[in-house]
Design goal:
- There is one protein chain.
- The termini are far apart.
- 7% of the residues lie in helices and 35% in strands.
- The chain has helices at 10-22, 296-304, and strands spanning 66-75, 86-89, 94-96, 102-108, 110-117, 124-130, 135-142, 151-156, 164-169, 175-176, 195-199, 208-212, 220-227, 246-251, 254-260, 269-276, 281-288.
- With 312 residues, the chain is mainly beta.
- It has 2 domains: 64-144, Immunoglobulin-like (Sandwich), CATH 2.60.40; 145-312, sav2460 like domains (Lipoxygenase-1, Sandwich), CATH 2.60.60.
- It has 2 helices and 17 strands.
- The longest helix is centred in the first third of the chain and has 13 residues, at 10-22.
Length: 312
Amino acid sequence: MHLTVHRAAVPALLAIIIAVMLLPLGGVISASPDRALAQRTPPPPTPSPTPSLRFPIVMRNAIVETGMLVGRVVDATTNAAIAGARVCQTDGLCATASATGAYTLPVTVGSRNVRVSAAGYENLTTRIDIAARQTITRVLALSTPLLDGQWRFVLTWDAQPPDLDAFLWLPDGSAVFWGARGDCDPNPPSPAVGACLEQDSRDGYGPETMTITAPRGGGYYTLGVHRYDDPSDTITEPPITTSGARLHVYDTSGQQLEFRVPAEGEGQFWYVLDLDATGLLTPYNAVSDHNPYAGLSSAIALQQHGLPIKPR
């Protein structure tokens, strides 16, 4: 049979033939003969992995290293035990003093403030520097409230030396100390001097307590502490810096200051402060071989330390 193809049908016939040839290759033909052939649709991209964050496990009960603070809570003026006193690390645990004033308090390692309180007494705040598993013994001496214008100085220290002596020089040049206890002396001076050594401890730890009961004008008071091992020996005896001494200062509003004996220096005398009749306190907190009332050679030594010299 003879097949006749009209010339106008040739393009359509060719398109059909091409489409049949491309089917095995996966191609498609455009619906419009004027558009280019479309390629196979590409596969979707592989998704990026989601980042995974990992954190260290925190132990719920972390180990906190502590030392131990032990000792007694006592009245600064009588050395009597204060049963029931509360001894607290300001950011930690508390302990209650027994009938004998004894307490035991775990304290977190480092430099910590310890607060002591009891009914009828001013609060005491003192700093403790303690290492892991270290045991520190402290007598914590509380002061009863003072009247307006009065001042109290409470000295405590370590077990050694057995005896530290507080000296309070008065504006008139006289002094209150263990040998002349002022208005607390068994044979008090007349007229009264307005100052008193209320407690003198000689078995280590303290307290040793001075009180200005009636301030006097016309000059200023000087407070110092002497290490009493051998008063004539300032060479072989250990310096006062090894005593661990601290002095707490009170006025009518409660505790004002805590002085700690300097860690450095040579000598057995700790020159702590001056106080004038207006209540202006000048801290010195320096260690020397000499007190402010010593002779010319001592005066030169004091001047070299930048310390004032009181007239004799």
